[in-house]
Amino acid sequence: MGILLAFSRAVDWLNEHVGRLVYWLVLAAVVVSAGNATIRYTLDTSSNKWLELQWYFFSAIFLLCAGYTLLRNEHIRIDIITGRLSERAQTWIDIVGGVLFLLPMATIIMWLSWPVFTDSYIHHEMSQNAGGLVRWPVKILIPIGFALLVLQALSEIIKRVAFLMGLIPNPNPKRASHGVPPADPVNAPADMVGE
Predict the structure, then answer these.
(1) Per-residue pLDDT tens over the stretch 161-177
(2) Considering its fold, how many domains does the chain have in total?
(3) pTM over 0.90, yes/no
(4) How does it assemble (predicted)?
């Protein structure tokens, strides 16, 4: 299990750093959007390149941060029923959901999106909009984003199995009302196990 936990730590590190890097694309998207609007209204000119660049940035943010969002446990959950269950029951739900739904879905999308990217790259696909951008850079974000999500799903399953085995603290503790973020269970000191 030690090797799997080391893999989990590496995946968590990767998605943490990708997420923090992609934060800057939010600022870039805002700057491009504001600049485009300013030029359009002051100089009465614009280009589809600016609109498509905003779309590319949004796509990168959404796709590349899916694994980061899963790492942070920030995906939307409906906790009306599961919130009343024990930590172990919630952990089992996460494992079953990850194995039966998340991993197959993300793997299939990653696999099927690769030929879409390669076709776009080989044919140097361009936007059909006048003055638009080349399409392959945004299409490669799909398999990359879903690969990061697959890796993070594996990491989350490993952490939850390790929790059930008593090797690490709960990787998904119930959030306290005072807003303290949960500790990193994989890197927690050994004396915290079982708390």
Answers:
(1) 999 998 888 887 764 33
(2) 1
(3) no
(4) The complex comprises the extracytoplasmic solute receptor protein and the two transmembrane proteins.
